[in-house]
Task: structure prediction
Amino acid sequence: METKILLTHCKDEPGLISKITNICYKHQLNIVHNNEFVDNTSGHFFMRTELNGYFNDQTLIADLDQALPDGAKRQLVSSSRKRIVVLVTKEAHCLGDILMKAYDGTLNVDIAAVVGNYDTLKGLTEKFDIPYHHVSHQGLNREEHETEVMKVIEQYQADYLVLAKYMRVLTPSFVEKYHHKIINIHHSFLPAFIGAKPYQQAYERGVKIIGATAHFVTDDLDEGPIIKQDVIPVDHNFSALDMAQAGRDVEKNVLSKALNLVLNDHVFVYGNKTVLL
Amino acid sequence: METKILLTHCKDEPGLISKITNICYKHQLNIVHNNEFVDNTSGHFFMRTELNGYFNDQTLIADLDQALPDGAKRQLVSSSRKRIVVLVTKEAHCLGDILMKAYDGTLNVDIAAVVGNYDTLKGLTEKFDIPYHHVSHQGLNREEHETEVMKVIEQYQADYLVLAKYMRVLTPSFVEKYHHKIINIHHSFLPAFIGAKPYQQAYERGVKIIGATAHFVTDDLDEGPIIKQDVIPVDHNFSALDMAQAGRDVEKNVLSKALNLVLNDHVFVYGNKTVLL
Amino acid sequence: METKILLTHCKDEPGLISKITNICYKHQLNIVHNNEFVDNTSGHFFMRTELNGYFNDQTLIADLDQALPDGAKRQLVSSSRKRIVVLVTKEAHCLGDILMKAYDGTLNVDIAAVVGNYDTLKGLTEKFDIPYHHVSHQGLNREEHETEVMKVIEQYQADYLVLAKYMRVLTPSFVEKYHHKIINIHHSFLPAFIGAKPYQQAYERGVKIIGATAHFVTDDLDEGPIIKQDVIPVDHNFSALDMAQAGRDVEKNVLSKALNLVLNDHVFVYGNKTVLL
Amino acid sequence: METKILLTHCKDEPGLISKITNICYKHQLNIVHNNEFVDNTSGHFFMRTELNGYFNDQTLIADLDQALPDGAKRQLVSSSRKRIVVLVTKEAHCLGDILMKAYDGTLNVDIAAVVGNYDTLKGLTEKFDIPYHHVSHQGLNREEHETEVMKVIEQYQADYLVLAKYMRVLTPSFVEKYHHKIINIHHSFLPAFIGAKPYQQAYERGVKIIGATAHFVTDDLDEGPIIKQDVIPVDHNFSALDMAQAGRDVEKNVLSKALNLVLNDHVFVYGNKTVLL
Result:
């Protein structure tokens, strides 16, 4: 017996749930969880079906392809553990949280490697017996540096890249290469305070709440599909630095919740948004 | 074209989603929203299906009865506006919020009448052209008072009774008469601070968070199925009275969110719990 | 015995708390609550002192003026109930909440009048025996309309103007006339989604949290000093309209909390920020 | 120049703030932060004053003793880093968070040692070069085991003991020995679900919110002064195990926030409550 997840999305039409669940039933697969959503604005249908049983992937997919409307996307993913490569700069809290949660099993993930443009977090990473690659950006232009980073990443066959406070902007060609496979944590409640130094911006604006946003990276800086956001209250007592320190917990919690959703195949990307089922 | 909601719950078995959605499809009913849940502990299946189309209730129910396992409960409810009677004592905030939200359409409800054991809230109720019945408990024992209250309630054919800070304990016979039809707001985060004066209890315990709980009323005081809870932070600056004042917003918000769930048929009661679909 | 609030702010220097509290002690005034804050970035000192006793305002102020550094601002305000005029357009929830909280005493305020550019909320306002002035903007340019609105407002000698979902942008001359006396509720978590239709903007961006911001109105649209903010979670199920409906509770709660702070003299405006003591 | 914190609490009387701040001013100490609170129910005064300058501890304390009412408690504490010993059983998340935050400087603390009644967390602790003592309770009665634990603890001269999911009840004599020096994280929103298996209890009650409570340990199980609490929403989808997993983040966040308050001398214990200044 195996557990797999069927992800379907297509143009909405009557009878889709019935058709898909019929096929699962015919294949003697038990539906453990099922969630569906219709975006009425665009007329698009999404369904995540967690199935248990003995799978014949080929015939199952063939049956679905026959039943679903033209252009339907369907994917049968194994529930096995995904692999990530984490990119970092100097801040320890997000990386530390991921390392700890991978260690104690809270996150169902293999951290294949950590890549940093400084060596600050080498010691922390190696405590957990995970390879750390220091790829300095010193003396390299953006493209050259990314080429070096990619060489390292390529070895690891990762399912996702996680930017755990990686403080460099990626080039369009890098982003394109890992389309919807790069997850970033931005230290503001987007779309407030896009760009550099969001806590300084938040301090100067005098906001009473700060936040963090985990999103897929796209070409438009800080404009990719949002997966998870959360906030904490602040007040006049907080300097920009206090906000940055207070923000650490919310950053790491948001990133880890987003990873949990992505790693367990709960996330559909649709246009510039996510549907979480 | 009408919108109706099909509520199904029964022992879990393979193929239920497929069977139910097939029948809906066969009846040319469009599924607007569908949510299901299987309680793996008890092996029980719950499904809420919002349907749009031309209904033949009798044949639809007959088809379902044939397909579903023995003992299945299924109910087809109209999405029309429900009627409530509100019971109050002296505090205005919960009643005021319900009156205002019924007035501006935020709550899809008809307030048939308000019944109070004091006349404090008569003026407020009548501003909104809703009948207020003052049924004093003075000089009556609990059963006598409830008999009088019931006489008033009976006129109105209400779907639900809402205890909006009604500060009297109901007798088992009253509760039984309106089985799972009475919704109460308790001014604590249950099961903390059961019984009288929860804010005083919270103050004495020195908690850092207070809350409110909306639940169905059962024979066991403050032990009925919980529909909705929420909390707010407090600190050493709060006296018991300050907590009571600060708690008003959370009480009224929790009650109104619970009502919204109940009035739109999102709530299954199962054992001493609710399943919200 | 009276209760008054002493609000002091000035350039920081050693000994300020000692000097001010000495003067209060010398005047035999009891300090009920005291809160102070030093903004280390600007070197500015703020203190709110709630005093109880028999006041000789003139000598108290004179003593303070002698002790405090040049340019110090100090103000002794009575704790009596403030007067507001509320400006509205068509949406009922914020006005309704203020009316209800003034009625039941949750907000310590006199609502002198309500002014609307539509007559939609006249019925609701008059239920509470408060004068409603319908000042239509039809056929008038912005300045002409504001002149009419001001004529009405002027009669009431209000301490503050409250924009309870007043959907018109004010001219600089109007704003200047009521400098730091106009409180607005903006239906987004500022500075995200400045300007028109913030829920539509939020929907299009696919955010997972929406919010509301109460702020003083300045010349720069949605850029005034923020008093209070709060948020609620949303997800892919929410249309722009659903967000607007869900946002009602957070809007009214944020506005009413901000009013509570302002009406009880907890708010210092400093530059483009507030200090809440 | 040094930074120290003056903690004063005593019977309330007029002029206390003035007297204390005068003395600080006379000693040419600059007040960096000052917070005070009067508990009007008991007539008790609390003040935390963060001071910067050149200290003559003896004369400062002598001056205070002369000025303050009989029975006043005053304490001048250095702002230097405190030492803790952490007690654990098998769960990694709270210990892991403390280790990581001590490592990256988020918590201003020295972890002198970790003591566990199992050896499960030895590997994790030693990654951070901190001594781990496995003191098994196997074959020992409660007193014998505690004697062994105390032998280990005594070596380290800790300021506080932190129970990071230490799943054993302490004896009164142990608790008395470290009076108000033991901080525990309880995995429920106390006083709900006192005692064993709170998540199982929460599951059975069908609550919609779960939480965690950090408190000082006293003789009465789970009844000590509460320092910090927080909650997260749950629903019918959560089994007792799911709640336990979801609760990990809130447990570790609450414990680490409570530690931050305690380690920076923001916490007064008064009766069975805390005052956080």
